[in-house]
Design brief:
40% helix; alpha/beta; binds S-adenosylmethionine; seven-stranded mixed sheet; 9 helices; Rossmann fold
């Protein structure tokens, strides 16, 4: 587990929601609503949100799977999860787990879907491959992985800030992943379709084995 990276995110957790509200004109909410509305989650399903961060997506997912379903928000940063706790406090179908995406602490084939919002490109080096292998292991056969990513910011200043943050994490591959996710995901999934948010600068890649 990357201890220094964990500490980076623990520290960043104090500013993360504020940073996102500056970076994203809609504070990320339209994109999260779009994701939860367009991926066909059904009551009773069990879904896993990896790199859940401060948990902003989780209540939307929890509302879709309803009381009979379950949402697990997983992240390796205790700070990020702690910042997310108030957002899920009133949802007794949402659970937070601290773990690394390279080793998901679940048995095989138990999730109806896996989501990852605005995070995959931040995974370092081989972690991206380990993560995708683990996602395929824990998904029920034929079930989808939904990856939501930013389109690169159009505003020059915001784009510069975005790249500075990527550089601060040493995420050299991140820019390539953002530009060419389909080629990377194609190593693991045979079907990859993109859904584009109408009013935001995010897209959702729907990946199936
Ligand atoms: C940019 S934040 C995204 C948070 C959230 N999904 C959102 O949409 O706001 C990236 C998250 O990935 C988590 N993360 C990075 N590497 C990880 C790893 N190897 N295992 C688990 N979580 C990781 C970080 O702790 C951080 O919370």
């Amino acid at each position: 587990m990357g201890v220094y990276r964990q500490r980076y995110y623990d520290y960043f957790s104090h500013f993360y929601d504020t940073f996102i509200s500056i970076h994203s004109a809609d504070k990320g909410e339209n994109a999260r609503v779009f994701l939860s509305e367009n991926i066909g989650l059904q009551p009773g399903e069990i879904t896993l949100d990896i790199c859940a961060g401060t948990g902003s997506l989780l209540p939307y997912l929890g509302n879709k799977v309803k009381q009979e379903g379950m949402v697990i928000g997983l992240d390796f940063s205790f700070g990020m999860l702690s910042a997310g706790r108030p957002k899920v406090a009133h949802h007794n179908n949402i659970f937070l787990i601290q773990a690394d995406v390279s080793y998901l602490p679940f048995r095989d084939k138990i999730f109806d879907s896996v989501t990852c919002s605005h995070a995959f490109y931040e995974l370092k080096g081989k972690t991206q491959d380990y993560c995708l292998q683990e996602i395929l292991r824990v998904l029920k056969p034929g079930r989808p992985f939904f990856m939501m990513e930013h389109d690169l910011p159009k505003n020059y200043l915001i784009r510069v800030l975005f790249y500075i943050r990527l550089l601060s994490m040493g995420a050299g591959k991140a820019r390539e992943i953002l530009k060419n996710e389909k080629a990377f995901l194609g190593k693991y999934f045979s079907s990859i379709e993109a859904l584009y948010t109408p009013n935001t600068r995010s897209k959702v890649l729907v990946c199936k084995e």
